[in-house]
Structure to design on (680 residues):
């Protein structure tokens, strides 16, 4: 259970050019049943030192798009289109060795379940220090010292002795700290956190998010935070990207998207969240229908079969033509409703439910 | 570690006790009288009774079993054969030789055959399986997978004579299989056993190839392997150090289970190549209704398997730190 709370003012520092720029990314898997359009012409930018939250239901393409930044998708069955620029380096066309030098070094990743994501056969010390050795060419002693420093930095007590422990000897929260220490050991410019707190209980979740925020302030790391938890988004990110059926459907700063959302799917997401202070007898409001099959995505706006407002737009526009994100900058969304209509519906019907 | 050993040794003793008891009592379910074999063609009933008495076979079954069991530790005085020192497994009804020394004589043969074959099939099976997993979906994988299906159906008694015919008789590449003690001539030991090893390991190699491939493919899809890739570890490191580490556990488990099958295979191999090992003793003991020999061979076979299984359990703790021996 989470609630949307505001605990920081927006801060969107702008550099000269985007630090990470994803342009028209498409990811397709070939499976026995056909081609899965996991990501469809996705574009987004990430500035240095900021956090981008990517939100969406399971199977909306959040994780897949980020795995492809690091080239971690299954190459044999995946087709990737578009461009991913990390400063002046293009990653979709990069060679395997270029990507290997990048992974864990300039771009690091932390995963959802720290128990299965850490090797059960190696000590945490070794798992952390081998990254440092590999990328920085450090000696055994140097990388060991660095591992102790990192464990200490992420708040693991008695880092020196815990170095020799195996992941199963840590608690869930501590394991995720180990994971973060491992990801940050080479001072990456970009950290991709794929649902880092989903497997943790709420108090530990808050600690981990605070830790990520602190580390970002200290090292200026850019973070992509993939989550389906809007409470986490409200607490940690600067900008939000809402994904649906492999596409971006709304984009903006965290206030814009959470305080005044434009897209009917975002309304549904926000309205479906349980609130601590609401009446327990009040039923939760789920988004009507089920997520679309990506084998055969709906024509036009992928959300149209579940949308309550498509009649306001006109007879078939929503089911025939795909809406693009508009306007070009700022708070953007992919919906044919006019801004006035969106405001009216949101203020009239949706706001009271949030 | 100490508690682990005590527990496992007690467990092993109970298993051996049960196996020997079951063998003992099953033997008497066979409607044949071993005393008659000692008696000769014309056998007066009083002689038969005397022989039965000398063999201790006129006592109740439980008492006989008890005497046999105690004899292993204290030795016993057998009227028919004389004094039998501990560890006494009795004397063969068929050949009158001491069961214990017969087994000790032949033990090196069987151990050489089985362990040599194990080395052959573990190395070849695992290496081929790893290559297949590395080349997953590519021609080399398909060749390895197809060959292993064929290999898995090649029986020892079928392949053995063919190999001997070509390699020994026609081409003269290797000497006819026999056993030369390792201590006397290591090279001779090796070349004379090479054919039995290869023939015995064909089926196992095929199975270990398929198994290694599938567990490696499974491991490569694990989260922690993905993490290793996300850390920038090279594909070779990911394959050999991360995925292989996890794949070892199921392989060691299956190897523990396969030990019994391996001893069974050794019996057939020894028969096929007329090697004078424990397998040959076992077959002859069954043919001759030779209870002491049968019991001895069964006990030694079970003992070896139990001991090797304890070794496998200790190996676990080295491979997987989550396993603690306590």
């Amino acid at each position: 259970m989470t609630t949307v709370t505001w605990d920081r003012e927006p801060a969107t520092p702008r550099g000269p050019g985007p630090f990470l720029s994803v342009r028209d990314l498409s990811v397709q898997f070939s499976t026995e049943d056909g081609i899965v359009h996991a990501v469809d012409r996705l574009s987004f930018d990430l500035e240095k030192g900021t956090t981008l939250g990517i939100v969406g239901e399971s199977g909306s393409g959040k994780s897949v798009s980020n795995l492809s930044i690091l080239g971690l998708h299954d190459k044999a069955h995946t087709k990737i289109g578009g461009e991913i620029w990390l400063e002046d380096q293009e990653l979709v066309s990069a060679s395997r060795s270029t990507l290997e030098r990048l992974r864990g070094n300039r771009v690091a990743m932390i995963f959802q379940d720290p128990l299965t994501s850490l090797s059960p056969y190696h000590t945490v010390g070794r798992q952390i220090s081998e990254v440092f050795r590999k990328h920085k060419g450090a000696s055994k002693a140097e990388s060991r010292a660095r591992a102790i420093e990192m464990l200490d930095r992420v708040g693991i007590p008695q880092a020196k002795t815990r170095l020799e422990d195996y992941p199963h000897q840590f608690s869930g929260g501590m394991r995720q700290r180990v994971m973060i220490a491992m990801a940050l050991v080479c001072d990456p410019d970009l950290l991709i956190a794929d649902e880092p707190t989903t497997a943790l209980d709420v108090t530990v979740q808050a600690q981990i998010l605070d830790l990520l925020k602190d580390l970002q302030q200290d090292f200026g790391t850019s973070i992509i935070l993939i989550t389906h938890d809007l409470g986490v988004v409200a607490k940690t990110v600067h900008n939000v990207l809402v994904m649906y059926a492999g596409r971006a459907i709304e984009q903006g700063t965290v206030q814009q998207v959470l305080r005044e959302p434009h897209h009917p799917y975002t309304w549904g997401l926000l309205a479906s969240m349980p609130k601590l202070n609401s009446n327990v007898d009040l039923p939760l409001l789920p988004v009507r229908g089920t997520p679309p099959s990506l084998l055969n995505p709906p024509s036009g706006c992928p959300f149209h079969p579940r949308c309550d407002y498509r009649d306001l737009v006109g007879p078939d526009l929503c089911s025939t033509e795909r809406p693009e994100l508009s306007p070009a900058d700022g708070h953007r969304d992919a919906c044919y409703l006019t801004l006035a209509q969106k405001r009216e519906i949101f203020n009239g019907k949706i706001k009271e439910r949030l | 570690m100490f508690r682990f050993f005590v527990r496992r040794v007690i467990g092993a003793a109970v298993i051996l006790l049960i196996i020997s008891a079951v063998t003992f009592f099953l033997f008497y379910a066979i409607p044949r009288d071993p005393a008659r074999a000692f008696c000769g063609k014309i056998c007066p009933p009083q002689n038969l009774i005397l022989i039965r008495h000398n063999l201790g076979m006129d006592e109740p079954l439980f008492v006989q079993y008890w005497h046999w069991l105690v004899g292993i530790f204290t030795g016993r005085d057998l009227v028919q054969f004389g004094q039998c020192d501990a560890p006494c497994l009795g004397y063969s009804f068929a050949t009158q030789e001491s069961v214990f020394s017969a087994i000790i004589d032949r033990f090196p043969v069987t151990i050489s055959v089985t362990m040599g074959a194990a080395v052959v099939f573990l190395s070849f099976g695992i290496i081929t399986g790893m290559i297949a997993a590395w080349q997953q979906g590519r021609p080399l994988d398909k060749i390895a997978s197809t060959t292993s299906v064929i290999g898995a159906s090649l029986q020892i008694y079928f392949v053995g004579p063919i190999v001997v015919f070509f390699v020994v008789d026609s081409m003269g590449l290797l000497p006819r299989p026999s056993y030369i003690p390792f201590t006397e001539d290591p090279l001779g030991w090796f070349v004379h056993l090479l054919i039995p090893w290869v023939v015995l390991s064909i089926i196992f190699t095929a199975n270990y190839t398929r198994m290694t491939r599938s567990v490696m493919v499974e491991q490569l899809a694990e989260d922690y392997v993905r993490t290793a890739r996300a850390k920038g570890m090279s594909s070779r490191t990911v394959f050999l150090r991360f995925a292989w580490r996890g794949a070892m556990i199921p392989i060691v488990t299956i190897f523990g289970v396969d030990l019994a099958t391996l001893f069974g295979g050794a019996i057939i191999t020894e028969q096929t190549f007329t090697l004078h090992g424990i397998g040959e003793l076992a077959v002859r003991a069954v043919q001759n209704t030779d209870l002491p020999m049968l019991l001895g061979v069964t006990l030694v076979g079970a003992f070896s398997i139990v001991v090797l299984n304890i070794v496998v359990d200790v190996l676990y703790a080295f491979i997987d730190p989550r396993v603690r021996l306590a």
